[in-house]
Amino acid sequence: MSIGRNDPCPCGSGKKFKRCHGIHAPTVASPETARANDFKALDMDLVTRLLRFAKLSFGDAWLHNVLDAYTGSHDVEIPERELTLALPWALYSRRDADGLTVAGAWARDRGSRVTDPEHILLHAYAKTWLSLWEARRLERGVGVAFVDLLTHQERFVHDVSSSTTLNLHDVMLAMVLDCDGVSFFGGVHPQPLPPRYADSVLRTAQKICHVRTRAVAPDVLRDPDTQLEIIDEWNETVDRMFGAPPPTMTNTDGDLFTLTTDDFALVAPREEILGRLASIDGASEPENESGTTVFVFTKPGNATHADWDNTVIGRAVVGRDRLRVETNSLRRADTLRARLEASLGAMIRHRLRQESNTDDLIKRAVAKGPIKGHGRPTPAQPPEISAALRGFREKHMRGWIDESIPALDGLTPREAARLPRKRRALDLLLKDIERHESLLPPDQQIDLSWLRPTLGLDRQ
User: Fold this and answer.
1) Spatial distance between the Cα atoms of 180 and 130, rounded to a whole number of angstroms
2) Looking at residue 28, what is its pLDDT?
3) Going edge to edge, which strands form the sheet with 287-289?
4) How far apart are CA 357 and CA 355, in angstroms?
């Protein structure tokens, strides 16, 4: 999974790795990283030699037959990128009638010609297991600290690619090799899963291994058939994730999110209309914006957040001869239009309404395709604005632990933390929050270290 500095960055930005996430890569590798890289290079070289050995020893059809066993079908073609897991499984996990893997047969055939580094690598593969590894700490450009969700073991995996593309709490399906005091990926599925989808695989894997919450013994996860069951569940979950419909978005009133614009013609003089708009209950002080005058309309309180003083329901943008009213739901659009027409009467004339829901927005984004060129980085927020936003969000999170949460069946996080049957759902919710926070620029992130201790929820 190594990346050249001039290769496209795997994050999808379109930039070269050295100008994107590669900025974080260390210029001088540590002794541990260098040692891990040496073993990974040996690993890649050994795969080529083992494949050649298998073809000569077991015939031209060997690879085709073993990949059929991997998929469980003669008609399913493995995507090329998934060979990063399928080939290690075929060479190091699958056993013949005599109980030998391809690697074991190769080592027996070579005898004393197997080098010490090769012995170390083969021993690492013999001791590894396939499991679900969750990213708990990322050192960009170096590696990732993982915890095995099934065995509960921890490893720091030296891997530049995953350190620059994974997010906090992402989960990998992988074999982690331990060689001479360093760990790195052996076989790894190319598609990580976020916490909620990974939890679905975890529940199934625990059933396969006949456990509920206790740690799974590594020997159980070394069984090739058990590995295939987990791989099948992982692939089905990946397909379900990418095939899932876009999420339904709502505003804080619970209305379906629909960007709505009502366009009016100005029939009366503009200044008279501005004066009438300013007198409507809930209208803000007018602001100038690119040659237009903007009024923001609010209502008292908020249906979702008890600590909010008011709710923005829309805004009116007054141009030279047009009035544009923007809201984020049809109900708010109808309400605000009725208020404006009641106040302005014949001073304005409705022309048309435009609506865009989340499906429309996603389709437009896809149709535009990737943005060409390097683009410009998003400018940093002024420190005072970042501090104000952090303060607002920190205040919200302090109150959030005592709010009724639909994902917790209406319980507050504090209540859910006291119920063993709800702690798993609460843990997933906290992972989502922590993961989202980790994606923000450092100056916009808030401190969440108090959250789990306050709830009495140990990290799972």
Assistant:
1) 20
2) 57
3) 287-289, 292-300, 310-318, 322-327, 258-266, 348-357
4) 7
8 Å CB contact between 190 and 242: no
Share of the chain above pLDDT 70, in %: 88
Encode the chain in three state secondary structure.
Answer: CCCCCCCECCCCCCCEHHHCHHHHCCCCCCHHHHHHHHHHHHHHHHHHHHHHHHHHHHCCCHHHHHHHHHHCCCCCCCCHHHHHHHHHHHHHHCCCCCCCCHHHHHHHHHHHHCCHHHHHHHHHHHHCCEEEEEEEEEECCCEEEEEECCCCCEEEEECHHHHHHCCCCCEEEEEEEEECCEEEEEEECCCCECHHHHHHHHHHHHHHCCCCCCCCCHHHHCCHHHHHHHHHHHHHHHHHHHHCCCCCCECCCCCECEEEEEEEEECCCHHHHHHHHHCCCCECCCEEECCEEEEEEEEECCCCCCCCCEEEEEEEEECCCEEEEEECCHHHHHHHHHHHHHHHHHHEEEEEEEEEEHHHHHHHHHHHCCCCCCCCCCCCCCHHHHHHHHHHHHHHHHHHCCCCCHHHCCCCHHHHHCCHHHHHHHHHHHHHHHHHHHCCCHHHCCCCCCHHHHHCCCCC
For residue 331, give both structure tokens. 């109900």
> Model's pTM, two decimal places?
0.74
Bridge partner list, 300: 310
* Distance in angstroms (rounded) separating the CA atoms of residues 410 and 397: 17
pLDDT digits (tens, 9 = 90+) for 30-71: 889 999 999 999 999 999 999 999 999 999 899 999 999 999
Question: Given a cut of 80, is residue 367 above it in pLDDT?
Answer: no
